[in-house]
Amino acid sequence: MKKFFSVIFLILIISMGVPILITQLPQKAKKEERAAEPIPEAAQVSVSDKVSVYIKNEDRVSEMDMNQYLKEVVAAEMPVDFYEEALKAQAVAARTYLVNRINTYKENGTPDIHKGASVCTDPTHCKAWISEEARKASWEGDVSEKWAKIANAVDSTDGIIITYEDKPISAVFH
What we know:
Oligomer: single chain
Number of strands: 5
Distance between the termini: 63 Å
Helix content: 40-55%
Order of helices and strands: HEEHHEHHEE
Low-confidence stretches: none
């Protein structure tokens, strides 16, 4: 009887284990292959990059660190109490949108509404954006903890954008 159960157990392990191994090995190889792919030049961004932003309600252009700008965009576009993975997805989409706009305006010039800047803070034209003062006034509770959550979402996705055919997509969404 022990031998019978041992054989049945062995057959179960083989019948379940082999398909799992067969399906997982190619996926692991693909992940490693993707990780080794170079980032296309058109898609490369750095935390040290600066971006010019037309702040509409103040009628002025400001030069900002890209990641600081993105943190303020994510803070304006999503409630901070959303899951961190959702905030990360928002950060990637916002960064992709920004890089696409910068590349587009390098080639075609900036629209008049931007007053020479790469992007503006008018959410009907570009991205929503919130200043530190406005953010602190609108958030309740531990503001520093909430800001740390936003900052982590942007920082942990640094340099990641969505591309198609080695170019940043136009990441418009609603």
